[in-house]
Known about the structure:
seven-stranded parallel beta sheet, nine-stranded mixed beta sheet
Amino acid sequence: MARILLTNATIVTGASTKKGALAIDGERIAGIWHRGGSDLDDSAAVQAFPDSEIIDLDGKVLMAGGIDAHVHFREPGMEWKADIESESKAALLGGVTSFIDMPNTKPPTTDLETLQDKLNRASERSWANYGFHIGATNDNAAMIREYLAEGHGAEFGGIKVFMGSSTGNMLVDDNEALSDLFRIQGKPILIHSEDEGIIKANLEAAKAKFGEDIPFSEHPRIRSRKACIRSTAKALAMAIEYGTRLHVLHVSTAEEVEMIRAAKIHNPNITAETSANYLWFCDEDYEKLKGKVKCNPAIKSASDREALRKGLAEGIIDTIGSDHAPHLLSEKVDNYLKCPSGMPSVQQSLSALLTAAALYNEGKNADDEALISLSRIASAFSERPAEILGIKDRGHLKVGNYADLVILDPEQEYSVKSHADLVRNVPEQEYSVKNVAYKCGWSPYEGTTLRGVIDRVFLNGKQVVTDSRLLPTPVSLSVGYTQANTDEMVLSLPLYYGNCQISSEG
């Protein structure tokens, strides 16, 4: 396989941002060189890694490929909205090289049989590296515990619990079942956290006031902050009591950020995710976008958005997941009661994150205020998802890891263009970073100017996006997981290539 040397790169990890070069040998990262104070170029890397194709990145940012651990690719059962092939192409165009799909498909992924079906489908059609979570029900905790005891934990990422509320048929509302699930060791518990009782009461009140014509602006009052806070408070208390590896998904309120901050003191295994949607949109967008930004939990106020940005900057928010959840546009333009929740976003997630970060950083003093730095983005977009889920050999720029890489210009702007006709009967090379590539053919970011144009993407050592366009050959692999301490996994990687010492930081 090819030997490739990427030179003149701005290498960004969760620990540092440095000029240098990175070498690829086959599927893996073979070497990383950081320039010293007197180094004007990457001649040392060129000498240490001969007989390779040299690609000059012209100072662009090089990061580990994104790991989006929160997508709904709709297959099986809802392929008219999206499927593994179409959405994995969009993921690559968004710099996401690995995705972990959620279990609320039809049928739901709640046992090894349905899990294996999805693995088989992905092995045939996915363009990005793939993996899947398993779903909890009111009565399958014992079965999941048995799976883990038998060594099946390497086959799925985390255990998804719709705690308090579910838009499908996977609601876990039995307290004994919840306690049983929260006692499971070896895998993180991933929670959708909203209180169903509060939501139902708020919805009935909205119906009484507006009838069938409920304005979309009522969504954050129906699926209210109180519903989020009450459910998350319960989950955090249980996680502290049982020592659970708890991962709180799509955090949407300022109050939850502070609750998670406090809970981490008592249980450092508690982690949290938000999505770029909550970092970009706010309740003011309902007037214009209406059902296009209806999602669960609801997008809240501008002050919540600012608190989430601050939580990301400070590391209280650990990861960014897109919560990519496509529906047909014909469904999203229906009235409030009929409009399904969810929006397609995996392709724009990184750019929206970079743009939100730039807005948050404006006017701040780097010396005395936390910023959403490129390093922080690299951590949340790639590194922390790998660590939390125990994903082997991915997510970090480290020698020996798979060469899943994204190269981008974080300052270059572009306007997201609607390109619905791209998704049908058009050659793959026509797919572009700037054009919507989802099967549903639309995006809530259409017409928005975003920062961060993705130039190249490498997947398992092979270039799959070049000049911002998707190349026609998929080279995806199933991700692997470990039930062991992820710190041990990271530290076990080799630190040398040939006679040249390689940085362990990346």
